[in-house]
Amino acid sequence: MNRVLPPLLATLLSTVSAAAPPPVQTLLPSGRVTVDLLTPTYPPDILDIGRRMQDAARTHRDWFLEQVRNAAPGEPLPYDPRFGVTREEYQRFLDVKPAYTAFGRATLTITRRTDGTLLFQGGRGLEGLSGLVLDPRQNRVRTPTAGPGPARRSR
Q1: pLDDT grade, residue 27 (50/70/90)?
Q2: How distant, in Å, are the alpha carbons of 32, 41, 61, 74 from that of 130?
Q3: Coil, strand or helix: which one is 117?
Q4: What is this structure's pTM?
C-alpha cells in the first residue's frame, strides 16, 4: 500500500492545485471504480545513488537534519559532498522521473457528499485511502489520522 498511496495522492493533489485545472469533480468518477495499482520503478544506478545518500545522511546525521531544517519548502537540498555522491550523480537523482509498473487492481469508492466534498473508501490494496476527504472548494485534504490542512502542491 505504501508504494501506491504517495504517487496516487501526488497525482490527485497536483490535479487539484495545478494552474486552471478543470474542476476535480469532473475528473473523478462517482461510485465504485476499478483502479490499477502502480508502483514507481527507477533505474538501478538511481537506487544505488539513493542508498549512498541515505548512508551519508545517517553518517552525518546532525548536518543532514540541519540542512532539512534550513531548506526552502518544496525545494531540493543544495548539493554538498557530504551526500556521498558527486554533483553529477546528485543532479541525476533530482532529475530522474520514475516509470510506473502495474502490480494489481483494486476497487475504490468515491462518494460525492452534499457539502461538495469527496469521500474515498479504498478496497483491498487501497486501505490507506479509506476515510480520506477531499474538499476541492477549500483546497483541503483530510485524512482519518490527520486533521484538515491545505493540500500540498506536487512538483
Answers
A1: confident
A2: 13, 25, 35, 27
A3: coil
A4: 0.55
